[in-house]
Hints:
The structure holds two protein chains of two kinds. Helix content of chain A is 33%, strand content 23%. Chain A is built from twelve helices and twelve strands. Chain A has helices spanning 51-58, 86-95, 104-107, 114-125, 130-143, 149-152, 162-174, 192-209, 220-226, 244-249, 254-262, 302-306; strands at 9-20, 23-35, 40-44, 67-76, 79-80, 97-100, 180-184, 212-217, 229-234, 237-243, 312-315, 318-320. An eight-stranded mixed beta sheet of chain A has the order 6-7-8-3-9-10-12-11, sandwiched between helices. Chain A has a four-stranded antiparallel beta sheet with strand order 2-1-4-5. In chain A, a hairpin with a 2-residue loop joins β11 (312-315) and β12 (318-320). In chain A, α4 crosses α5, α4 (114-125) runs parallel beside α7 and α5 packs across α7 (162-174). Chain A starts with 8 loop residues before the first strand and ends in a 13-residue tail after the last strand. In chain B, 31% of the residues lie in helices and 23% in strands. In chain B, the strands form two sheets. Chain B has an eight-stranded mixed beta sheet with strand order 6-7-8-3-9-10-12-11, with helices on both faces. Chain B has a four-stranded antiparallel beta sheet with strand order 2-1-4-5. In chain B, β11 and β12 form a beta hairpin. In chain B, α4 (118-129) packs across α5 and α6 runs parallel beside α7. The chains are: A alpha/beta, B alpha/beta. At the A-B interface, α8, α9, α10 and α11 of A face α7, α8, α10 and α11 of B.
Amino acid sequence: xxxGAVPVLDVKGLKTVFRTRGGDVxxxxxxxxxLKPGExxxxxxxxxxxxxxxxxxxxxxxxxxPADVRDGQVLFGGADLLKCSPEHxxxxxxxxxxxxxxDPMTSLNPVFxxxxxxxxxxxxxxxxxxVGAKRRAQELLxxxxxxxxxxxxxxxxxxxxxxxxxxxxxxxxxxxxxxVLIADEPTTxxxxxxxxxxxxxxxxxxxxxxxxxxxxxxxxxxxxxIADRVIVMYGGQIVEQASVKELFGHPRHxxxxxxxxxxxxxxxxxxxxxxxxxxxxxxxxxxPAACSFRAxxxxxxxxxxxxxxxxxxxxxxxxxxxxxxxxxxxxxx
Amino acid sequence: MxxxxxxxxxxxxxxxxxxxxxxxxxxxxxxVGDVKAVDNVSFDIYEGETLGLVGExxxxxxxxxxxxxxxxxxxxxxxxxxxxxxxxxxxSDLRRLRPQMQMVFQDPQASLNPRMTVAAIIGEPLxxxxxxSKREKLDRIYELMDQVGLNRNFANRYPHEFSGGQRxxxxxxxxxxxxxxxxxxxxxxxxxxxxxxxxxxxxxxxxQDRLGLTYLFISHxxxxxxxxxxxxxxxxxxxxxxxxxxxxxxxxxxxxxTQALLSAVxxxxxxxxxxxxxxxxxxxxxxxxxxxxxCNFCTRxxxxxxxxxxxxxxxxxxxxxxxxxxxxxxxxxxxxxxxxATEAIPEHPTRSVT
Lengths: 333, 354
């Protein structure tokens, strides 16, 4: 991706807090990132690291209360999505920003036909009439590789298998030619062979349609195969950001490094004992005053307990939120 | 593993195991068909080994694990634990055998009673099966908590006060309470985060080394199974289609389904990902209520030929220690032509390897 390109989506200092009976939960803490046109940005992190909440906050999908998007700026198409009216936001969602959720069963309405659900955004946002919407819906189903598309439009979600349902979700998300597609763990609920089908489909659709994609996942293997650039989240913050090759080749944050070492491989060396990250993820009851990984970090020193590290550049398009510097690698390794 | 495994005694022998669930219809619940969740499965588990059982959701791997422990009453087949037939044993006799075979469940949230303290959960099997005094019981509970890396001070806490990984440790401690020989681990790490998965897998391995346990490790995570298992069985639509020592299976998978399955696993390495060729299977898994004629995999197999659609391949040993059910490896296809068509599935397909 050209570095100079104007980002389609620019998020600055996003903060989201959940107000619960047990106190506030600081789920997203000053998250900033941008998305370039046509780029596939991978977002990785464990459950509770704030990756989904970040994406839901920026298009106003979180119920408030309990969620409270406290601070930040989300620039999309020249407007700040956090400040614009609910009507504008509604027009953006579905039309300009498409969403694919993790579980295709719960995100499709069981009492409407699949055809109706694909036609809904077309009629709502594109102003198509019934005939035009139906024709387009059929095209979309064909685009995502559902055989016998015309007949399948009249089927209900329960008549589709998991992989097919996720294809329908993709068709709905793509219905209005969005500039940005946000995919939240779209293959996590699927089996590996079906996941492979969906990944192939997304790669193909990217080439055909050229939209920018944010792909949220906890699976580093999936990221390695499809992403251009990756952000790693931990404790509601972005701890590392780099191109996919750089991140896997030269991970800098101790968390990223540890994470990459804990996954066993199907093809590479088989280790006798798995590496572990000791301890538990942090509880986000207060905004971080220190590095949130320090309790589990093998390299932590006194400064890590005093201040929260800011993201700093460590190479071309590579930044990390960590005070620690690894020993320089041999130049001709 | 190839030389080591066969020398050991067989702890579990499963032959022709079938587990069908009836499909009923109408007001009288008349039976109209069967869901063939496990359909004619045979394998051995040797003492001290970990047998990995992999497959996609709905392939029957969990049902298989549960049927072996007689949590279901199998439709047909024989299950032997240390040479003793348990497939048709009465529940009261079975109860005496229960301490030897235990289970670790997938979802530690759902498999622990939220109203019981950790001590009560771990102590329950001891109440049921032993006559320990209160003091001895508490000592045993503490010992078990130490073994699985739980702090003794937490004995009186409730499951909700623990994280997912710790809850799974409680489930493991409960399974260990009666000194079992054989533990079925049904997707024990599927509900956990990556960094926590490794902790639990290491714990299971440590316990195996220390206590000489035998595991049936059921999982859909092929990379984790490669790490923990000695031998691996691959299931598809209710049948085991390949069984082999771990290294052989991952290096040279024989069955086209195993090949596709392994090639579908994404690799956390962008360089490898760009060079790698995936075998993309078309279509979905057929319904186990109505499996296809011939080979179960024939509807999706990239190497399918005529015979696959007519005749079910036998599960047979095609190389020392390597079993597969595929016509591609039928020697008879090449030599004797059609004779194999009448050949029934061998009664004891899992010969010992010498």
